[in-house]
């Protein structure tokens, strides 16, 4: 019985087919509508909402108060003041959280929020045992600008902390120890003292 031998497929034909298929996929992706951009959130704080008119002179002063972690992962705090030529003035602090080298987000805290922020952080540092009847817990505090501080229990049953910043997209640092949070509190206290000396909090 005579069997027909299959004709070998040429390498050129295979390459041409792959190029055509790849080009077809790219054109289909280009034709597909991209997801609509999410509209920006309205300002939650005076600092975030400070938008001087175009062409106006703006004065911006700030102090870097310190950081926890390292240049790639951690959190930093600065206290700032912004003023325009019309006399509009905003003051407060900014917390930047670096989750990785690709993700860093900021939250703004107005001057009038800082006293409650200090009290809340003291309350979180005072958590020494699970305050619930469940295996796991979180105790949270969130500012108007969605900077969140959390105390929680780790898998080993130890109290750990997290700090999160950002509104539309968030960045966070977890598994922080009490000493990290005490350093963060010292930065918040430094902001309070600076703004109080400037007369903002009186």
Describe the protein's topology.
Blueprint lengths: L10 H21 L14 H4 L8 E12 L4 E11 L4 E12 L2 E8 L3 H12 L12 E5 L5 E6 L5 E7 L5 E6 L1 H20 L5
Helix pairs in contact: 3-4
CATH class: Alpha Beta
Assign the CATH architecture. 2-Layer Sandwich
What is the CA-based Rg, rounded?
27 Å
Structural class: alpha+beta
What distinguishing features does this structure have?
single chain, 202 residues, alpha+beta, Secreted effector protein pipB2 fold, four-stranded antiparallel β-sheet, 4 helices, 8 strands, globular, disordered N terminus
Task: Summarize the structure in words.
The chain has helices at residues 11-31, 46-49, 114-125, 178-197; strands at residues 58-69, 74-84, 89-100, 103-110, 138-142, 148-153, 159-165, 171-176. It is of the alpha+beta class and 202 residues long. It has one domain (51-197): Secreted effector protein pipB2 fold, CATH 3.30.2450. The strands form 2 sheets. A 4-stranded antiparallel beta sheet has the order 1-2-3-4. A 4-stranded antiparallel beta sheet has the order 5-6-7-8. A hairpin with a 5-residue loop joins strand 6 and strand 7 (159-165). Helix 3 packs antiparallel against helix 4. The longest helix has 21 residues, at 11-31. The protein is globular, with a radius of gyration of 27 Å. The model is unreliable at 1-7 and 11-35 (pLDDT under 50).
């Amino acid at each position: 019985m005579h069997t027909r031998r299959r004709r070998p497929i040429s390498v050129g034909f295979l390459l041409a087919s792959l190029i055509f298929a790849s080009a077809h996929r790219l054109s289909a992706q280009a034709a597909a509508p991209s997801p609509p951009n999410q509209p920006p959130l309205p300002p939650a704080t005076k600092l975030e909402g400070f938008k001087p008119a175009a062409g106006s002179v703006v004065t911006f002063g700030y102090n870097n108060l310190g950081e926890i972690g390292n240049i790639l992962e951690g959190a930093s705090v600065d206290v700032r003041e912004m003023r325009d030529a019309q006399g509009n003035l905003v003051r407060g602090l900014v917390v930047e959280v670096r989750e990785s080298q690709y993700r860093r987000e900021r939250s703004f805290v107005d001057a009038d929020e800082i006293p409650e922020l200090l009290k809340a952080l003291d309350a979180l540092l005072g958590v020494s045992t699970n305050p619930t009847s469940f295996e796991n817990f979180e105790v949270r505090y969130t500012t108007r600008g969605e900077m969140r501080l959390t105390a929680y229990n780790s898998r080993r049953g130890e109290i750990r902390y997290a700090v999160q910043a950002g509104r539309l997209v968030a960045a966070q640092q977890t598994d922080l120890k009490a000493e990290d949070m005490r350093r963060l509190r010292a930065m918040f206290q430094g902001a309070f003292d600076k703004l109080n000396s400037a007369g903002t909090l009186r």
